[in-house]
Write a structure and sequence with these properties.
It is built from four helices and five strands, in the order βαβββαβαα. With 202 residues, the protein is of the alpha/beta class. It has one domain: Lysozyme-like. Bound molecules: zinc ion.
Length: 202
């Protein structure tokens, strides 16, 4: 049970070459920078391996001033220098974890953001680099489609269930009103007869 409220999923690059970057190295760099632990929650390498490196309950150190309600996902590589492009495997793994996190924490796909878009004033960054940035709209669109495909049957089912419940509720209410009215009518009739014993029974 994660008690932290998650509102944003923040995508990063490691800003370091694919060939020489490992999860262990990123952890080491972050320790050396004085972070209490690794800054991101997930690190994805070029083969598509996704390592969960930090508990969701723990605030990361990945987007200054906005760690409180976010989860950080880092794709290994330097996508700013125009040298590297994210691999298909890395993009697919990123998409898969974004779908999973959106569904688990009820984060709408439009709250998947890049580090640069989510950075507060004075903390400008080019992360996750233009070659990953250019993949973001496609990535978010695919996440949106996948989530919708998972939700549709459930929503239709729920709508039908709601309709049935509403009709049932209306019928129950109508029966209740009829019972009250007929009770009231027979009460008035009885009263009428007791006040005017000679009156014709109507
Ligand atoms: Zn970043």
């Amino acid at each position: 049970m994660v008690t932290r409220k998650i509102n944003y999923l923040v995508v990063h690059h490691s800003g370091s070459p694919v060939a020489t970057t490992t999860v262990a190295k990123i952890k080491k760099w972050h320790r050396e920078r004085g972070f209490p632990t690794v800054g991101y929650h997930h690190i994805i390498d070029s083969s598509g391996t996704n390592s969960k490196v930090l508990s969701y309950d723990t605030e990361g150190c990945h987007v200054y001033g906005k760690n409180k309600d976010s989860i950080g996902i880092c794709v290994i590589g330097d996508y700013q220098k125009d040298i590297e492009k994210p691999t298909k495997a890395a993009l697919e793994a990123t998409e898969a974890i974004l779908v999973k996190l959106c569904e688990r924490f009820d984060v709408p796909p439009w709250c998947i953001v890049t580090h640069s878009a989510h950075a507060i004033s004075g903390h400008h960054t080019l992360c996750p680099g233009k070659n990953l940035m250019s993949e973001m709209s496609g990535l978010i669109a695919r996440v949106t489609t996948t989530i919708a495909s998972h939700r549709e049957p459930m929503d239709i089912h729920k709508e039908i269930a709601d309709d049935v419940e509403e009709v049932f509720h209306r019928r129950t209410l109508w029966t209740h009103i009829k019972n009250v009215l007929s009770g009231l009518i027979s009460f008035i009739k009885k009263k009428w007869k007791s006040v005017f014993p000679g009156a014709k029974n109507t």
